[in-house]
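Figure 2 data, in text form.
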Amino acid sequence: MAKTALDTIETDVLIIGGGGAGCRSALEAFDNGASVTMVMKGAFGKGGASCLPGWNGGFNVPKGDTDPNDSPEEELKEILQAGEGMADEKLARIIAYETLDRLHDLEKWGLNTIIKDGDKYHQIRACFSARPRLIKTSDMGIAPSIVAVLKKQIEKRDIRVVEKVMALDLLARDRACVGALCIDKEGKYIVFKAKSTVLATGGAAAIFHSNRYPADITGDGYALGYRAGAELTNMEFIQMMIRGWHVVLGLLGPDVYNDSRERFLPKYVPKEVTAAQCFFDRSHHGPFSTRDKGRFIDIAVYKEITEGRGPVYMDFTRLTEEDLKRSVIATRGGPYNGMETALNTMKAFGSNILEKPIQVSPGAHAFNGGLRINERAETTVPGLFATVETAAGPHGADRLGGNMLAGCQVFGARAGKYAAERARNFAGLAVDKKQVDADCHTFDKQIRNQSDVAATEIETKIKDLMWNNCLTVRNQKGLEGCLSGLRRLRAEALPRLSLKHKDELFKVLAVPNMLDVAEMVSSSALERKESRGSHYREDYPDKDDRHWLKTITVKK
C-alpha cells in the first residue's frame, strides 16, 4: 500500500499532537516569532484526549477566591504531598505559580463558560486537594471548550495544520532531533524538517482494555522519544478509576456484589476497618491510591473481575428520593461539591441510581510519568521538547485533580516558547537521508507484509496482559508473566503483523508503540518493590522510603 514517495516540509517548530497541549505550544511558538507546523493523527479539534466528549474535568487555579487561605505555595505543598517524593519540585512550582496566567490567556481568547460567583471564580475541591481550587465550565467538558478556543486562535495565525498524519520516527543528526518522518492515511511519507520538535501526544491509556480515553491514545510520544534516546521516568504511576460511578456516591453506602450476588468486600477489608470507612476515604478522590483505606474498594473490585467472578455491581436501589435530597444538602462544599454534582453528572448521562444497580470496573486514566523534562520543557535529547501528559515531573505517585489540564496549558506554553527560542538561535542541521531511507524501508516492509496476524489481534493481547497484570493489583509473578508475554508478542507475532485493510494503517503502525510502552510500564512496576500512590504491589503492600524514595528511569 505505502509508496516511498517523499514530500519535505521545513519549519522552525514542529508540534506532534493537536490537543490542548499541542495547541498551546503552537500558539506560543508562533507568537515568539517561529514558523510553526502542527501534525496530528485525527481531525483538528476532534481527536485526542482533550476532545473527549463529556469530559467534565476541571482546571486548578490557586487563587483563593473560595478559600482565601489558598495560594500557589499551598498548592505546591499539596502537589508534593500527593507526589510522595516522585514529583520534581521545580516543575511542580511552575504549575502552581503559572496556571492563573494561562487561565487568563484562555479567557482573553474567548473562554466564556467558566462558572463564577460575581467576578470571582467558583472553586471546588478536587482529587487529593484539601482546599477548593478547581474551576469548571458551565458545559459538560472544559477540555473540549479549551481546545475550541485555542483552535480559533490558531486559525487566526499563519500556523500550518496537517491533519490525519501519524509520526513514525523522530529524525536525528549529531544526537539532536531535527524533525520527524510521518505518513498520511494514503500511505504517503512526509519528512518534516524542524529546528525544534514538541511531543504533545498525550498518554497511553489505550494499552489497557478498560480506559477513559479515545482509542488513538496509544503512547506514540513515549515510544518516539524512547527510540530517539530520551529518558522516561515514573512510568509505573498511572491513574486508575472505577468506571461507572462517581466516587462521591460511595458516601451513600452501596451494596457491592459480584455476578453470584456475593457481597465480597469483607474478604478484602481488614477486620479493624469498616466498609463505610473505605467508602468515605474513596469519596475524596477519583483515581485509585494506596494512601488511604479507599484502596480496598478498588483492590476488591479488580480482583473479583480478574479472577472470573465479575461483573461487579454497586447497588443504590434501596435508597429513596428523600435519602438523596438529604445527602445533597449534607455534602455541599465537600469533594466535587458533594452529591449534587455526582447526581447531576450521572443524570446527564442517563443514569438513575435508584432504578437499577450500576456495573463498575477499573479502568486506566492518565499517566503521571513520561519523558523527563526540565523547566524549559526540554527532554534529554537536544531539540526535542515534551509537554504534559507526554512529559514527567510535574506530578508524582498521585496527581491533584485539575492539574493535568492546567499542566497542558502551563507546559504547553513553555514548550512553545523555548522551542521557538531554540529555533531562533539555531542554524539547523540537515536531515540524515540514510535514516529516512532506512525508516521508509522498515515501514514499507511492515505495511506490505502479507502474513496472517491482524493489528487487532496483537492489540487485544497487549491489553489482556496489561489489564490482568499491570492495572490495579500488581505482583512479581504477574508482572514477570506480563513481560514474558509482551516479549513473545514482539518476537513471534509482530513479524507476522499484516495490514488487512487500508483504513487500519495507523492501527498497524501503532502496535509497536503500544508494545514499547507496555514493556516500559511493566518493567518499571516490576522494579519498584513497594506500594506508593497509584502503584500497588500486593507482594510489597507498604511504602518503603528507605529503599524506594527514588525515581526509576527508562532509556533505550
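Caption note: The chain has a mean pLDDT of 93.
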